[in-house]
Design the sequence.
Protein backbone atom coordinates (compact mmCIF):
# COMPACT_ATOMS: atom_id res chain seq x y z
CA UNK A 1 0.00 0.00 0.00
CA UNK A 2 2.86 2.39 0.85
CA UNK A 3 4.44 1.72 -2.53
CA UNK A 4 1.16 2.64 -4.28
CA UNK A 5 0.95 5.93 -2.33
CA UNK A 6 4.52 6.79 -3.24
CA UNK A 7 3.79 6.03 -6.89
CA UNK A 8 0.61 8.19 -6.90
CA UNK A 9 2.47 11.03 -5.16
CA UNK A 10 5.24 10.83 -7.75
CA UNK A 11 2.71 10.98 -10.62
CA UNK A 12 0.99 14.04 -9.08
CA UNK A 13 4.31 15.87 -8.72
CA UNK A 14 5.22 14.96 -12.30
CA UNK A 15 1.87 16.25 -13.59
CA UNK A 16 2.16 19.49 -11.63
CA UNK A 17 5.63 20.02 -13.02
CA UNK A 18 4.36 19.40 -16.54
CA UNK A 19 1.40 21.76 -16.22
CA UNK A 20 3.20 24.64 -14.58
CA UNK A 21 4.74 27.07 -17.04
CA UNK A 22 7.36 29.71 -16.45
CA UNK A 23 6.15 33.26 -16.09
CA UNK A 24 5.31 34.78 -19.49
CA UNK A 25 7.36 37.56 -21.06
CA UNK A 26 5.74 40.72 -22.38
CA UNK A 27 6.69 43.03 -25.25
CA UNK A 28 4.59 46.16 -25.68
CA UNK A 29 4.99 47.96 -29.03
CA UNK A 30 3.55 51.47 -29.25
CA UNK A 31 3.61 53.37 -32.55
CA UNK A 32 3.34 57.17 -32.72
CA UNK A 33 0.67 59.06 -34.71
CA UNK A 34 -0.31 55.90 -36.60
CA UNK A 35 -3.76 55.80 -38.16
CA UNK A 36 -6.30 53.01 -38.30
CA UNK A 37 -5.70 52.67 -42.02
CA UNK A 38 -1.89 52.82 -42.09
CA UNK A 39 -0.90 49.13 -41.97
CA UNK A 40 -1.01 46.60 -44.76
CA UNK A 41 -2.95 44.20 -42.53
CA UNK A 42 -5.55 46.94 -42.01
CA UNK A 43 -5.95 47.54 -45.72
CA UNK A 44 -3.36 50.10 -46.78
CA UNK A 45 -2.34 49.32 -50.37
CA UNK A 46 1.27 50.54 -50.31
CA UNK A 47 2.55 50.24 -46.72
CA UNK A 48 5.36 47.73 -46.37
CA UNK A 49 4.98 46.06 -42.96
CA UNK A 50 5.84 42.35 -43.34
CA UNK A 51 6.54 41.77 -39.65
CA UNK A 52 3.42 43.51 -38.37
CA UNK A 53 1.48 41.61 -41.03
CA UNK A 54 3.02 38.40 -39.67
CA UNK A 55 1.84 39.29 -36.16
CA UNK A 56 -1.65 40.01 -37.48
CA UNK A 57 -1.81 36.78 -39.47
CA UNK A 58 -0.64 34.67 -36.55
CA UNK A 59 -2.34 36.58 -33.76
CA UNK A 60 -5.54 38.37 -32.79
CA UNK A 61 -6.30 41.55 -34.73
CA UNK A 62 -8.64 44.11 -33.15
CA UNK A 63 -11.17 46.20 -35.07
CA UNK A 64 -12.50 48.25 -32.13
CA UNK A 65 -9.48 49.17 -30.02
CA UNK A 66 -9.10 52.65 -28.51
CA UNK A 67 -6.47 54.84 -26.92
CA UNK A 68 -7.61 57.39 -24.31
CA UNK A 69 -6.44 60.66 -25.83
CA UNK A 70 -5.88 62.06 -29.32
CA UNK A 71 -2.38 63.31 -28.35
CA UNK A 72 0.83 61.73 -27.03
CA UNK A 73 1.56 62.24 -23.32
CA UNK A 74 -1.91 61.53 -21.88
CA UNK A 75 -2.30 58.47 -24.07
CA UNK A 76 1.01 57.06 -22.78
CA UNK A 77 0.08 57.74 -19.17
CA UNK A 78 -3.13 55.73 -19.56
CA UNK A 79 -1.35 52.87 -21.30
CA UNK A 80 1.17 52.41 -18.50
CA UNK A 81 -1.21 52.95 -15.56
CA UNK A 82 -4.58 51.55 -16.72
CA UNK A 83 -6.17 54.85 -15.69
CA UNK A 84 -7.62 57.76 -17.63
CA UNK A 85 -5.14 60.62 -17.90
CA UNK A 86 -7.49 62.88 -15.98
CA UNK A 87 -6.80 60.83 -12.83
CA UNK A 88 -3.01 61.10 -13.09
CA UNK A 89 -2.97 64.75 -14.14
CA UNK A 90 -1.38 64.30 -17.58
CA UNK A 91 -3.49 67.02 -19.21
CA UNK A 92 -4.06 69.41 -20.93
CA UNK A 93 -1.94 68.75 -24.01
CA UNK A 94 1.54 67.24 -23.79
CA UNK A 95 4.78 67.56 -21.84
CA UNK A 96 7.80 69.48 -23.19
CA UNK A 97 11.58 69.22 -22.66
CA UNK A 98 11.51 71.80 -19.86
CA UNK A 99 8.23 70.75 -18.26
CA UNK A 100 8.27 70.95 -14.48
CA UNK A 101 5.75 68.12 -14.08
CA UNK A 102 5.56 64.54 -15.30
CA UNK A 103 3.83 61.25 -14.60
CA UNK A 104 3.46 61.36 -10.79
CA UNK A 105 5.78 58.93 -9.03
CA UNK A 106 2.88 57.62 -6.95
CA UNK A 107 1.22 56.30 -10.11
CA UNK A 108 1.89 52.58 -10.63
CA UNK A 109 3.14 51.50 -14.06
CA UNK A 110 3.09 48.08 -15.71
CA UNK A 111 6.80 47.78 -14.95
CA UNK A 112 6.17 48.45 -11.26
CA UNK A 113 3.54 45.72 -10.94
CA UNK A 114 5.93 43.21 -12.52
CA UNK A 115 9.07 44.08 -10.55
CA UNK A 116 7.99 42.28 -7.32
CA UNK A 117 7.68 39.06 -9.35
CA UNK A 118 11.32 39.24 -10.42
CA UNK A 119 10.79 40.59 -13.92
CA UNK A 120 13.57 42.35 -15.79
CA UNK A 121 12.12 45.57 -17.21
CA UNK A 122 13.37 47.85 -19.99
CA UNK A 123 12.04 50.72 -22.08
CA UNK A 124 13.41 52.16 -25.29
CA UNK A 125 12.16 54.94 -27.54
CA UNK A 126 9.90 57.91 -26.91
CA UNK A 127 8.99 58.24 -23.22
CA UNK A 128 7.15 61.60 -23.25
CA UNK A 129 6.01 61.40 -19.63
CA UNK A 130 8.40 63.98 -18.28
CA UNK A 131 12.06 64.47 -17.46
CA UNK A 132 11.95 66.83 -14.50
CA UNK A 133 14.63 67.96 -12.08
CA UNK A 134 17.54 65.49 -12.04
CA UNK A 135 15.59 63.20 -14.36
CA UNK A 136 13.07 62.38 -11.64
CA UNK A 137 10.32 61.38 -14.11
CA UNK A 138 12.44 59.20 -16.41
CA UNK A 139 11.57 55.48 -16.85
CA UNK A 140 14.24 54.32 -14.37
CA UNK A 141 12.19 56.01 -11.64
CA UNK A 142 8.97 54.41 -12.88
CA UNK A 143 9.86 50.71 -12.55
CA UNK A 144 12.21 50.21 -15.52
CA UNK A 145 15.67 48.77 -14.92
CA UNK A 146 17.01 50.22 -18.16
CA UNK A 147 16.10 52.95 -20.62
CA UNK A 148 17.47 54.06 -23.96
CA UNK A 149 15.69 56.76 -25.89
CA UNK A 150 14.58 60.31 -26.48
CA UNK A 151 12.53 61.39 -23.46
CA UNK A 152 10.01 63.39 -25.51
CA UNK A 153 8.90 63.88 -29.12
CA UNK A 154 11.76 63.92 -31.61
CA UNK A 155 10.49 67.16 -33.17
CA UNK A 156 10.96 69.05 -29.88
CA UNK A 157 14.42 70.28 -30.84
CA UNK A 158 15.49 73.54 -32.48
CA UNK A 159 13.97 72.63 -35.83
CA UNK A 160 10.85 70.74 -36.80
CA UNK A 161 12.74 68.93 -39.55
CA UNK A 162 15.42 67.73 -37.07
CA UNK A 163 18.33 69.45 -38.84
CA UNK A 164 18.79 73.02 -37.65
CA UNK A 165 22.51 73.29 -37.00
CA UNK A 166 23.52 76.53 -38.83
CA UNK A 167 25.55 77.27 -40.79
CA UNK A 168 26.05 73.64 -41.83
CA UNK A 169 22.49 72.71 -42.79
CA UNK A 170 19.65 74.87 -43.99
CA UNK A 171 16.56 74.56 -41.83
CA UNK A 172 13.20 74.19 -43.52
CA UNK A 173 10.24 75.15 -41.38
CA UNK A 174 10.20 76.71 -37.93
CA UNK A 175 13.47 76.95 -36.03
CA UNK A 176 14.08 78.00 -32.43
CA UNK A 177 17.75 78.21 -31.57
CA UNK A 178 16.82 78.80 -27.92
CA UNK A 179 15.89 75.09 -27.60
CA UNK A 180 18.37 72.33 -26.82
CA UNK A 181 19.12 69.79 -29.52
CA UNK A 182 17.44 66.39 -29.13
CA UNK A 183 19.32 64.08 -26.71
CA UNK A 184 19.68 60.30 -26.57
CA UNK A 185 19.42 59.19 -22.95
CA UNK A 186 20.73 55.94 -21.47
CA UNK A 187 19.13 55.40 -18.06
CA UNK A 188 19.56 58.93 -16.63
CA UNK A 189 22.67 59.94 -18.58
CA UNK A 190 22.77 61.74 -21.93
CA UNK A 191 24.68 59.48 -24.27
CA UNK A 192 24.57 61.67 -27.38
CA UNK A 193 23.40 65.21 -28.14
CA UNK A 194 22.21 65.86 -30.78
CA UNK A 195 21.11 62.30 -31.45
CA UNK A 196 22.05 60.64 -34.74
CA UNK A 197 18.59 59.82 -36.09
CA UNK A 198 19.87 57.71 -38.95
CA UNK A 199 21.60 55.36 -36.50
CA UNK A 200 18.92 55.49 -33.81
CA UNK A 201 16.89 52.46 -34.84
CA UNK A 202 20.01 50.29 -34.96
CA UNK A 203 20.83 51.39 -31.41
CA UNK A 204 17.32 50.44 -30.29
CA UNK A 205 17.52 47.07 -32.01
CA UNK A 206 20.88 46.29 -30.37
CA UNK A 207 19.57 47.41 -26.97
CA UNK A 208 16.49 45.18 -27.26
CA UNK A 209 18.46 42.19 -28.55
CA UNK A 210 20.88 42.40 -25.64
CA UNK A 211 18.06 42.80 -23.12
CA UNK A 212 16.07 39.81 -24.41
CA UNK A 213 19.14 37.61 -24.78
CA UNK A 214 20.44 38.46 -21.31
CA UNK A 215 17.03 37.82 -19.70
CA UNK A 216 16.61 34.52 -21.54
CA UNK A 217 20.09 33.39 -20.54
CA UNK A 218 19.29 34.11 -16.88
CA UNK A 219 15.86 32.44 -17.31
CA UNK A 220 14.39 35.67 -15.99
CA UNK A 221 10.96 36.80 -17.22
CA UNK A 222 11.05 40.19 -18.89
CA UNK A 223 8.95 43.17 -19.92
CA UNK A 224 10.11 45.30 -22.85
CA UNK A 225 8.26 48.53 -23.64
CA UNK A 226 9.02 50.06 -27.04
CA UNK A 227 7.18 53.33 -27.71
CA UNK A 228 8.58 54.17 -31.14
CA UNK A 229 9.14 57.64 -32.59
CA UNK A 230 7.75 56.28 -35.85
CA UNK A 231 5.60 57.43 -37.55
CA UNK A 232 5.42 60.89 -35.97
CA UNK A 233 6.32 63.82 -38.26
CA UNK A 234 9.02 64.62 -39.32
CA UNK A 235 9.73 61.10 -40.50
CA UNK A 236 13.25 59.74 -40.77
CA UNK A 237 14.77 56.38 -41.69
CA UNK A 238 18.26 54.93 -41.68
CA UNK A 239 19.99 53.11 -44.55
CA UNK A 240 18.03 49.90 -43.99
CA UNK A 241 14.71 51.55 -44.86
CA UNK A 242 15.29 54.92 -46.52
CA UNK A 243 13.87 54.91 -50.04
CA UNK A 244 12.77 51.28 -49.79
CA UNK A 245 9.02 51.65 -49.43
CA UNK A 246 6.46 52.71 -52.00
CA UNK A 247 5.00 55.32 -49.67
CA UNK A 248 7.72 57.94 -49.42
CA UNK A 249 9.13 59.23 -46.09
CA UNK A 250 6.11 58.05 -44.06
CA UNK A 251 6.36 54.56 -45.54
CA UNK A 252 10.12 54.44 -44.98
CA UNK A 253 9.70 55.37 -41.30
CA UNK A 254 7.01 52.72 -40.91
CA UNK A 255 9.23 50.14 -42.60
CA UNK A 256 12.12 50.96 -40.26
CA UNK A 257 9.84 50.42 -37.26
CA UNK A 258 8.70 47.15 -38.80
CA UNK A 259 12.31 46.07 -39.36
CA UNK A 260 13.04 46.50 -35.65
CA UNK A 261 10.00 44.35 -34.85
CA UNK A 262 11.46 41.72 -37.19
CA UNK A 263 14.73 41.82 -35.25
CA UNK A 264 12.83 41.36 -31.97
CA UNK A 265 11.02 38.32 -33.39
CA UNK A 266 14.29 36.83 -34.62
CA UNK A 267 15.84 37.30 -31.17
CA UNK A 268 12.85 35.67 -29.46
CA UNK A 269 13.15 32.69 -31.80
CA UNK A 270 16.92 32.43 -31.38
CA UNK A 271 16.67 32.48 -27.58
CA UNK A 272 13.81 29.97 -27.59
CA UNK A 273 11.30 32.15 -25.70
CA UNK A 274 8.93 33.20 -28.48
CA UNK A 275 6.27 30.69 -27.41
CA UNK A 276 6.32 32.14 -23.91
CA UNK A 277 6.06 35.79 -24.94
CA UNK A 278 2.99 37.95 -25.44
CA UNK A 279 3.63 40.69 -28.00
CA UNK A 280 1.06 43.48 -28.02
CA UNK A 281 1.08 46.20 -30.65
CA UNK A 282 -0.98 49.40 -30.88
CA UNK A 283 -0.51 53.18 -31.20
CA UNK A 284 -0.91 56.33 -29.13
CA UNK A 285 -3.35 58.35 -31.26
CA UNK A 286 -4.58 58.87 -34.79
CA UNK A 287 -2.77 60.35 -37.80
CA UNK A 288 -1.64 63.96 -38.07
CA UNK A 289 -3.67 64.75 -41.16
CA UNK A 290 -2.31 68.31 -41.43
CA UNK A 291 0.91 66.72 -42.77
CA UNK A 292 -1.01 65.34 -45.75
CA UNK A 293 0.85 62.37 -47.31
CA UNK A 294 3.39 62.51 -44.47
CA UNK A 295 0.75 62.46 -41.78
CA UNK A 296 -0.80 58.99 -41.87
CA UNK A 297 -4.19 57.62 -42.75
CA UNK A 298 -7.31 56.99 -40.66
CA UNK A 299 -8.86 54.65 -43.23
CA UNK A 300 -12.65 54.84 -43.15
CA UNK A 301 -12.69 56.66 -39.81
CA UNK A 302 -13.54 60.34 -39.32
CA UNK A 303 -10.85 63.00 -38.76
CA UNK A 304 -7.60 62.24 -36.92
CA UNK A 305 -5.16 63.42 -34.27
CA UNK A 306 -6.44 66.03 -31.85
CA UNK A 307 -10.11 65.11 -32.24
CA UNK A 308 -12.43 62.79 -30.33
CA UNK A 309 -13.85 61.35 -33.52
CA UNK A 310 -12.82 57.73 -34.08
CA UNK A 311 -10.05 58.73 -36.48
CA UNK A 312 -8.30 60.40 -33.54
CA UNK A 313 -8.63 57.56 -31.04
CA UNK A 314 -9.45 54.20 -32.66
CA UNK A 315 -6.19 52.37 -33.34
CA UNK A 316 -4.85 49.25 -35.00
CA UNK A 317 -4.01 46.63 -32.35
CA UNK A 318 -2.58 43.12 -32.51
CA UNK A 319 -1.96 40.49 -29.80
CA UNK A 320 0.49 37.73 -30.74
CA UNK A 321 1.45 34.73 -28.63
CA UNK A 322 2.21 31.50 -30.56
CA UNK A 323 0.46 28.49 -29.11
CA UNK A 324 -1.67 30.57 -26.73
CA UNK A 325 -3.52 33.11 -28.88
CA UNK A 326 -5.27 31.62 -31.89
CA UNK A 327 -5.17 33.61 -35.14
CA UNK A 328 -8.29 35.61 -35.91
CA UNK A 329 -10.09 38.93 -35.70
CA UNK A 330 -12.05 40.28 -32.74
CA UNK A 331 -14.71 42.98 -32.96
CA UNK A 332 -14.95 43.24 -29.18
CA UNK A 333 -14.43 46.63 -27.56
CA UNK A 334 -11.00 47.08 -25.95
CA UNK A 335 -8.54 49.81 -24.96
CA UNK A 336 -4.98 50.62 -23.96
CA UNK A 337 -6.44 50.89 -20.45
CA UNK A 338 -6.91 47.11 -20.47
CA UNK A 339 -3.27 46.19 -21.03
CA UNK A 340 -2.13 46.63 -17.40
CA UNK A 341 -4.92 44.49 -15.88
CA UNK A 342 -4.33 41.82 -18.53
CA UNK A 343 -0.60 41.63 -17.88
CA UNK A 344 -1.29 41.53 -14.14
CA UNK A 345 -3.64 38.58 -14.65
CA UNK A 346 -1.29 36.65 -16.93
CA UNK A 347 1.75 37.21 -14.72
CA UNK A 348 -0.04 36.52 -11.45
CA UNK A 349 0.82 39.99 -10.16
CA UNK A 350 -1.19 42.27 -7.86
CA UNK A 351 -3.35 45.10 -9.10
CA UNK A 352 -2.48 48.59 -7.85
CA UNK A 353 -4.70 49.75 -4.98
CA UNK A 354 -6.17 52.64 -6.94
CA UNK A 355 -9.21 53.29 -9.11
CA UNK A 356 -8.48 51.47 -12.38
CA UNK A 357 -10.34 52.08 -15.64
CA UNK A 358 -9.01 49.00 -17.43
CA UNK A 359 -10.42 45.46 -17.54
CA UNK A 360 -8.76 42.06 -17.96
CA UNK A 361 -8.66 40.93 -21.61
CA UNK A 362 -7.34 37.40 -20.91
CA UNK A 363 -10.57 35.60 -21.81
CA UNK A 364 -10.81 37.57 -25.03
CA UNK A 365 -7.18 36.91 -25.97
CA UNK A 366 -6.92 33.24 -25.04
CA UNK A 367 -10.43 31.99 -25.79
CA UNK A 368 -11.75 34.66 -28.19
CA UNK A 369 -14.33 35.38 -25.54
CA UNK A 370 -16.44 38.43 -24.87
CA UNK A 371 -14.90 41.67 -23.70
CA UNK A 372 -15.55 42.85 -20.17
CA UNK A 373 -15.54 46.39 -21.55
CA UNK A 374 -18.96 47.83 -22.39
CA UNK A 375 -18.03 51.50 -22.65
CA UNK A 376 -15.26 53.81 -23.79
CA UNK A 377 -14.93 57.42 -22.71
CA UNK A 378 -13.53 60.20 -24.89
CA UNK A 379 -11.79 63.24 -23.44
CA UNK A 380 -10.41 66.09 -25.60
CA UNK A 381 -6.79 67.22 -25.53
CA UNK A 382 -7.75 69.79 -22.85
CA UNK A 383 -10.18 67.95 -20.54
CA UNK A 384 -11.88 69.85 -17.76
CA UNK A 385 -14.46 69.22 -15.08
CA UNK A 386 -16.55 72.01 -16.59
CA UNK A 387 -17.19 70.15 -19.86
CA UNK A 388 -16.52 66.55 -18.80
CA UNK A 389 -16.73 63.87 -21.47
CA UNK A 390 -16.80 64.93 -25.10
CA UNK A 391 -18.06 61.54 -26.25
CA UNK A 392 -18.96 58.08 -25.00
CA UNK A 393 -19.17 54.70 -26.70
CA UNK A 394 -21.73 52.20 -25.38
CA UNK A 395 -21.67 48.90 -27.26
CA UNK A 396 -21.88 49.75 -30.95
CA UNK A 397 -23.22 53.26 -30.34
CA UNK A 398 -21.16 56.41 -29.92
CA UNK A 399 -22.63 59.61 -28.51
CA UNK A 400 -20.98 63.03 -28.98
CA UNK A 401 -21.85 65.62 -26.32
CA UNK A 402 -19.31 68.06 -27.77
CA UNK A 403 -17.47 68.14 -31.07
CA UNK A 404 -14.45 70.20 -32.06
CA UNK A 405 -11.86 70.13 -34.82
CA UNK A 406 -8.09 70.36 -34.38
CA UNK A 407 -5.10 71.86 -36.17
CA UNK A 408 -3.61 68.34 -36.30
CA UNK A 409 -6.53 67.25 -38.48
CA UNK A 410 -6.48 70.09 -40.99
CA UNK A 411 -6.18 69.72 -44.81
CA UNK A 412 -8.95 67.12 -45.23
CA UNK A 413 -12.22 67.91 -47.06
CA UNK A 414 -14.38 67.08 -44.02
CA UNK A 415 -15.23 70.44 -42.45
CA UNK A 416 -15.69 68.86 -39.01
CA UNK A 417 -11.97 68.07 -38.72
CA UNK A 418 -9.84 71.27 -38.84
CA UNK A 419 -9.49 73.86 -36.07
CA UNK A 420 -12.05 76.04 -37.83
CA UNK A 421 -14.68 73.57 -36.57
CA UNK A 422 -15.11 75.32 -33.22
CA UNK A 423 -16.39 73.76 -30.02
CA UNK A 424 -20.05 72.86 -30.33
CA UNK A 425 -22.38 71.35 -27.71
CA UNK A 426 -24.98 68.76 -28.69
CA UNK A 427 -28.16 68.25 -26.66
CA UNK A 428 -29.38 65.67 -27.33
CA UNK A 429 -26.00 64.18 -28.23
CA UNK A 430 -25.16 63.12 -31.76
CA UNK A 431 -25.46 59.32 -31.73
CA UNK A 432 -23.87 57.09 -34.37
CA UNK A 433 -24.18 53.35 -35.00
CA UNK A 434 -20.50 52.53 -35.53
CA UNK A 435 -21.22 49.14 -37.05
CA UNK A 436 -23.41 50.63 -39.80
CA UNK A 437 -21.57 53.95 -39.98
CA UNK A 438 -17.93 53.74 -38.79
CA UNK A 439 -17.20 57.09 -40.47
CA UNK A 440 -19.60 58.92 -38.13
CA UNK A 441 -21.38 60.63 -40.99
CA UNK A 442 -25.05 59.95 -40.23
CA UNK A 443 -26.37 60.67 -36.72
CA UNK A 444 -29.40 58.66 -35.69
CA UNK A 445 -32.71 60.58 -35.60
CA UNK A 446 -33.08 60.27 -31.84
CA UNK A 447 -35.88 62.82 -31.49
CA UNK A 448 -37.93 61.28 -34.29
CA UNK A 449 -37.77 57.64 -33.20
CA UNK A 450 -39.33 56.68 -29.85
CA UNK A 451 -37.43 53.37 -29.83
CA UNK A 452 -34.17 55.32 -29.51
CA UNK A 453 -35.26 57.15 -26.37
CA UNK A 454 -34.31 54.21 -24.14
CA UNK A 455 -30.82 54.19 -25.68
CA UNK A 456 -30.48 57.94 -25.09
CA UNK A 457 -31.51 57.59 -21.44
CA UNK A 458 -29.04 54.75 -20.91
CA UNK A 459 -26.21 56.76 -22.45
CA UNK A 460 -26.99 59.72 -20.20
CA UNK A 461 -27.06 57.46 -17.13
CA UNK A 462 -23.71 55.85 -18.00
CA UNK A 463 -22.18 59.29 -18.51
CA UNK A 464 -23.53 60.56 -15.20
CA UNK A 465 -22.27 57.52 -13.30
CA UNK A 466 -18.80 57.69 -14.83
CA UNK A 467 -18.36 61.41 -14.29
CA UNK A 468 -19.49 60.94 -10.71
CA UNK A 469 -16.56 58.55 -10.20
CA UNK A 470 -13.97 60.75 -11.88
CA UNK A 471 -11.61 62.68 -9.62
CA UNK A 472 -9.35 64.98 -11.64
CA UNK A 473 -5.74 64.81 -10.52
CA UNK A 474 -3.63 67.97 -10.29
CA UNK A 475 -2.57 68.96 -13.79
CA UNK A 476 1.12 68.21 -14.25
CA UNK A 477 1.31 70.11 -17.53
CA UNK A 478 -0.15 73.30 -16.05
CA UNK A 479 2.86 73.48 -13.71
CA UNK A 480 4.64 75.14 -16.61
CA UNK A 481 8.18 74.95 -17.94
CA UNK A 482 11.67 75.84 -16.77
CA UNK A 483 14.42 76.14 -19.43
CA UNK A 484 16.94 74.94 -16.85
CA UNK A 485 15.22 71.54 -16.88
CA UNK A 486 15.88 70.97 -20.58
CA UNK A 487 18.34 68.05 -20.89
CA UNK A 488 21.94 69.18 -21.46
CA UNK A 489 24.96 66.87 -21.56
CA UNK A 490 27.20 69.76 -20.40
CA UNK A 491 25.02 71.32 -17.69
CA UNK A 492 27.62 73.89 -16.61
CA UNK A 493 28.58 75.00 -20.12
CA UNK A 494 28.02 78.46 -21.61
CA UNK A 495 26.30 79.82 -23.61
CA UNK A 496 23.28 77.53 -23.54
CA UNK A 497 21.66 75.84 -25.29
CA UNK A 498 24.17 75.84 -28.17
CA UNK A 499 26.90 74.32 -25.98
CA UNK A 500 24.78 71.30 -25.09
CA UNK A 501 26.61 68.91 -27.39
CA UNK A 502 28.47 65.69 -26.73
Sequence:
Amino acid sequence: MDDVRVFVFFIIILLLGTCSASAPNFILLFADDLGFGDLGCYGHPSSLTPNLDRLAAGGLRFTDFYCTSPVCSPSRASLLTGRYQTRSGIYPGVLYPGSIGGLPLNETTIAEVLKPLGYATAAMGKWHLGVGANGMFLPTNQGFDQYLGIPYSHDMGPCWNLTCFPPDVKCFGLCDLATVTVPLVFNEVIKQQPVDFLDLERAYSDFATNFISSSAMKKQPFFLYYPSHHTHYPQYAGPGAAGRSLRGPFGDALLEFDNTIGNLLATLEKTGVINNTLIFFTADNGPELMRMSRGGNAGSLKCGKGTTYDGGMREPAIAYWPGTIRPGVTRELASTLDILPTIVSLAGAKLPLVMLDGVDMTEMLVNKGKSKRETMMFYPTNPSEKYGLFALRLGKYKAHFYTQGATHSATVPDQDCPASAVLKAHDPPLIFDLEADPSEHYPLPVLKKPDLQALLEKIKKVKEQFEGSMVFGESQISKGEDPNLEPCCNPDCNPKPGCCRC
